[in-house]
Amino acid sequence: MTANHSWDIDDFVRAGEATVRRLARYVGESQRGETPVIRRTPPRELAERLGLARWIRDGGMTAESYETFLDTYLAEGTRLHHPASVGHQTAAPDFPAALADFVHGASNGTMAVYEMGASAATVELEVLRWMLGKVGFPEGGGVLTHGGSLANLTALLAARASVAPDAWTDGVPGDLALLAPPSAHYSITRAAAILGLGERAVVPLDVDDLGRIDVARLPGALERTRRAGRRPMALVAAAGATATGLYDDLRGVGEFCAGHGLWFHVDGAHGASALLSDGHRHLLDGVELADSIIWDAHKMLRTSSLAAAVLVRREADLDAAFRQRASYLFYGDQEFDLIGRTVECAKAELGLKIFLNLAWRGERGLGEHVAGRYATAHRFWELARERPGFHCPYEPESNIVCFRYGTGDQAAVRERMLAEGSFHLTSVELGGVRHLRVTVMSPATDDKTLEALLDRVPALSPPL
Ligand SMILES: *Cc1c(COP(=O)(O)O)cnc(C)c1O
């Protein structure tokens, strides 16, 4: 007798209902702030508590035992919906996007070629069309990738193909350069290394003391690059720098690039979503001058990780990025296949996550989400400035705020907060000095949370 390996539909329904029940409780208690925001049980102890070795060895999980497992699993994780979750730039996902993940997990409409999922591919194409419209690329093209790092790599590959079209077949010429501020996300230098330019090909742009590109000193950087015998492949600016959340002057940089025939890449992983907010769109003024931009939906568009867009102003630039052929996948006219534009072969139904959030909340609702989080961060800055001992080096433009309290070890304060599970925040170095960093992602973070954080920091710090 052979086991029936098809789904037991009743079993699935029971387990699915248990999942919804447990997740509902988890998100509910998280957003009401009834639990610690973070737990850090060491892996060995946690593996024991979850019974991992036994499950792996023996199997036999049922809807009932799964429910118990899931409860512990969720309780031991980090709660992004919690008001005190002000750490990383990861979304507290909205539930329509969560539904999309569930649907994908079951139906597996993998996206490589249209025939593997007409609905999934069509949704991705429409979501991309919508994003291209927002950015102002009417003749543009795009593709969704698993995350911003891969998106940056893809966009810079398109830049490489534009400057050195034969690099794909002949290898990379040794004289290419990538111009970027030292504050650029590490995936930019990583991309330079992966693309075969080498990290040394990254020419650091002059910046102000907050890491923003100094537009007036761009000619000097270009001159230095050319004098060193290098050809600029692209110039990178940030629409929302990772450390500070501050925006580069995209119009200033864009006009300089246009005037000198440079490929202009905007890293909008974090901050491109401000395009949806009437009050914040101006931060991206000039973005339409870019040759390429990336935009993470799993940061401010409230999808789970990962869903990022690579968008280029001229559609053909993206098609030129990859020039490989594989006879079982690539043939004839493949008008609707996006496989020729990505590092990935199969990929998840990324478009559905973005689409369902849009369909549920509307573009306006998502824009209000962005505006709300940006406003809460600004409010934190206002409150912090009024308190003795707090120093904020800049007025926030987005939902990221940096500050210091006193002159003691800032990282130690953060460690104490994580250990007690009171707040999850991060830290960064600005101008060589460590700062604490708040990123407002959860809609549950309110004035009460901010006041509590501003009380807790001094309580865990050496006296002023
Ligand atoms: C988050 C971020 C990235 C990387 O995105 P992932 O989706 O985490 O790979 C790149 N650039 C900037 C500016 C970011 O904030």
TrEMBL record:
Residues that bear N6-(pyridoxal phosphate)lysine: 299
InterPro entries per record: Aromatic_deC, PyrdxlP-dep_de-COase, PyrdxlP-dep_Trfase, PyrdxlP-dep_Trfase_major
GO BP terms, alphabetized: amino acid metabolic process; carboxylic acid metabolic process
Taxonomic source organism: Microbispora oryzae
Transmembrane helix in keyword set: no
Gene3D superfamilies reported in the protein's UniProt record: 3.90.1150.170, Type I PLP-dependent aspartate aminotransferase-like (Major domain) (3.40.640.10)
Keywords: Decarboxylase, Lyase, Pyridoxal phosphate
Top-level division of the source organism's lineage: Bacteria
Any single GO CC term annotated in Swiss-Prot or TrEMBL for this entry: cytoplasm
Name of this protein: Diaminobutyrate decarboxylase
Protein family per UniProt: Belongs to the group II decarboxylase family.
Cofactor(s), names only, from the UniProt record: pyridoxal 5'-phosphate
